[in-house]
Amino acid sequence: MARHFAPRPHQNSLQTIPDKLDTIQALSLHPDQSFFFFFLQSSPNPLYSSLNSSVPSAFSKYCTSCSITMAAPDTSNPNILRDTFAAASHTSQDQASAWDNLYRNDFHPWDRGGPSLALADLLTERPDLIAPAQDVDRRGNPLRDATGAVVRRTALVPGCGRGHDVLLLKTFGYDVVGLDSSADGIRRAKENVAALEAAPGGVEPQGNVQLGQESWVVADFFAQDWSNGLGTDGSGKFDLIYDYTFLCALPPKLRPQWAKRMSELISHDGRLVCLEFPSGKPLSEMGPPWGVNPEVYEALLSHPGHEPRYNDDGTVIETHDIKPTDGALHRISLVKPQRTHKAGMNEDGSVRDFISVWSL
């Protein structure tokens, strides 16, 4: 039997200028909820997939030209991610191979071990920000197309890793694509989903929706061909894109391309949701993960494809006189979630990271 979590009333309307934080009330999970939601959160270390290139001035001291050696990773090195990608050549192929090598050697401490509670709360509590995956008629039955199939919105999770958030979106009724550059990562995602579906309690839909369908793609996020035939009506565009530990995995030089590709992949009425991790890390400090803050997202997404100017400390140089460019995304809400992964929390249990919602 499906578990139903009714959205609670929210206090604030959409924020076109999100300088006032809108705190989501925590969603209390029912004691007999499916096993999927009780997966323990694991190590707080980063990240998912990464690609590399040269870096802007604030980050240039970390740029090298060596190539990655595909040896078994030294898992005793506490800076293994930083050192691995500091030694990388600046090609997406080498970067993808490095992440795949880590997966193949069973080294993935960035994996959280479960889905994003911040995303689950946002989808449940704020239907005014993000339309439900399935529209219903007056009786609460899902709408169907001419063939009788339930009409479902589409979602994309780039850098999906072991697929926890892909499965979460499936339970909310989305047809969701999990994308990763690592073939071994996608293999693990498929195994993870199969194990969860076979576990006691299984995987059940949230509310009065039918389970969506998941599909998996091994590809370079920046390539133009992998999205052909996917997304809404096969358009290559998606109604919802969820970014967590993806932007922060990219070297700063690739940030403009990240924003441009997001602008290309989002549908006209779609939403980009970014769980902004890691907040509080010095912005010029070596990654991955590279530190981010709301100003970084604003500078990138308001000018897709254009490189922001950075101060020496990695902060964005504000340019209020520059108008948004074609394809710009607009932030409609900046949220401080009440729950998130342990990696996004302070020692006192308070949440450190933000979650932002964007539209064309």
Automatic annotation (TrEMBL):
Repressor listed as a keyword: no
Keywords carried by this UniProt record: Methyltransferase, Phosphoprotein, S-adenosyl-L-methionine, Transferase
Any GO BP annotation: methylation
Cross-referenced Pfam families: TPMT (PF05724)
MF GO annotations: S-adenosylmethionine-dependent methyltransferase activity
PROSITE patterns: SAM_MT_TPMT (PS51585)
Domain of life: Eukaryota
Protein's UniProt name: Thiol methyltransferase 2
Origin species: Beauveria bassiana
